[in-house]
Amino acid sequence: MMSNPILMDISRLLSRAGSAVPTGIDRVELEYALYLSRNFPARVTFVAYHPLGRIGVLPRRPTTWFLRMLARAWTNGTRPWRGASLMAGLLLQAAAAGTVGETARRRLYLLLSHHHLMKRDVIAGFMDRANAGLAVMVHDLIPIDYPEYARPTEPDRHRQRMDTVGQLADSVIVPSQAVADSLRHYLAPGGRCPPIGVVHHGCHVDPISTIPVSGLAPDVPYFVVLGTIEPRKNHLLLLNIWRHMATGRDRSRLPHLVVIGRRGWENENILDMMERCPALQGVVHEYATLSDVVVADLVRGARALLFPSFAEGFGLPLLEALSMGTPCLCSDLPVFREIAGDLPCYLDPLDGPGWQRRILDLAGEDTRENGETPVFADWPAQVAAGLAMIDGAVHADAAVAVRPMDVEARTAC
């Protein structure tokens, strides 16, 4: 564990206090915050960015209460109690006034989301006042590498974030080698790249549910797709496959598709198909806010998890489904092969006939008992690996020329 005092930024969690379902980045930031607050409470101080343009210290006890409240609500799949939003507002006000005391001991400013990473001058000013180095987690460069899947303003904002990383960061954690390669390629023209450590995310699987889900799980073979409904996730491929399978077939023998995820952006075609296509009614089921326990039960009961994304920085649903023994059909992406090896069935995300053949094969035969359930590293182990990677970078020369990876923390996942 790190010897340096840690200033961990939880700005994203404060901004998400009213959300019933966390995103993947929300989960990552919360896991690191909970790990540090439970295991090293004397070494971590939580901070947050205030819209007035400053980063300030948060009071310890209310912050701990807030983190536990958020974790409990997201696990249960309920919108956080109104007090969570009120407490987030109070903590944000505290950030406007909370100051970092002077110290001769070097601190570490830990920023695990992209929340305000574009505010380079604000971050630099805070680092000077706090006598702190900067450790950042970069989740992906998808808005830069694949701008067609992002909101129109997001590519420029993400370039600003990555420029901050290149100019200010002392170390960087990334969840996959694919992201490391992309980040190094982006930073190369600037001539400065901090040490980059590859630390896979942890895998968390809830125990078998005692909550009845008979009202949600179809009573026929079904498949699950899990993730925000946006073009990059390629829901349209699956909806067209289901429409094609429904044509001229006995609907009573048709497998069902369960779509789990909040509605994102630029998804009008996807929503129109789910809501208005007659062939999909009654066989495609959409759920936006479900508890982790219920999601786990639905995934466990599925013939397979379907993951036809065009691009990903990691892929938590893939690991969690595999850890439950649920087969996975996924896009043939380098990041998926990196984190899951030969466990899934890989398909081209544009190969509709290939996906349909595999879906029909699995609908007719449950293959879950044909192999052992793999075991992946859990969140505490991966958080510890991430912090150890940062520790190694802090005690080495921080800024280096662009070259092959200087720090690599590969923990099997």
Automatic annotation (TrEMBL):
Domain of life according to the entry: Bacteria
InterPro entries per UniProt: Glyco_trans_1
Keywords recorded for this protein, A-Z: Transferase
Pfam families membership: Glycos_transf_1 (PF00534)
Domain (Glycosyl transferase family) ranges: 214-342
One MF term in the entry's GO annotations: glycosyltransferase activity
Record Gene3D superfamilies: Glycogen Phosphorylase B (3.40.50.2000)
PANTHER family: GLYCOSYLTRANSFERASE WBBK-RELATED
Protein name: Glycosyltransferase family 4 protein
